[in-house]
């Protein structure tokens, strides 16, 4: 069900160092870092995990490009791009706010296809498919 989760931290460098140290004994390390240059915002994010799969994300606190209030990000596995599209449409119909229409997000990898909504509690909810069309 869960693909990855993410949340904001108040001190990104200190939190990154903490999680790198704390997760290393479990076999998890830095898989990727998303810089301000990559996003066009002032935010930094890093994904930790194993086997080239970032599953645990932290990021800097609010910036101009961040819509969520809570800072909680939950990504759900979708088995196809059509499921991502259907998730987005159903969530919007159920009262969510759009936070990123379905589409490719090659910043993560070439087949990353996701959609984002803000749920009624202010959480950033995503459906993601990692498979090619």
From TrEMBL:
Pfam families: Glyoxalase. It comes from the Bacteria. Signal peptide: none annotated. InterPro entries: Glyas_Bleomycin-R_OHBP_Dase (IPR029068), Glyas_Fos-R_dOase_dom (IPR004360), VOC_core (IPR037523). Residues 1-130 form the VOC domain. This is VOC family protein. It comes from Montanilutibacter psychrotolerans.
């Amino acid at each position: 069900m869960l693909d990855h989760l993410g949340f904001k931290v108040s001190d990104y460098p200190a939190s990154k160092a903490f999680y790198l140290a704390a997760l290393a004994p479990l076999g998890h390390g830095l898989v990727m870092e998303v810089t301000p240059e990559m996003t066009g915002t002032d935010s930094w994010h890093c994904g930790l995990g194993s086997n080239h799969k970032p599953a645990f994300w932290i990021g800097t606190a609010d910036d101009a490009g961040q819509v969520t209030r809570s800072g909680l990000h939950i990504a759900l596995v979708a088995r196809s791009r059509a499921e991502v599209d259907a998730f987005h449409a159903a969530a919007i119909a159920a009262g969510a706010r759009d936070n990123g229409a379905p589409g490719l997000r090659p910043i993560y990898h070439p087949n990353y296809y996701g959609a984002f909504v803000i749920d009624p509690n202010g959480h950033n909810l995503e459906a993601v498919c990692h498979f090619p069309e």
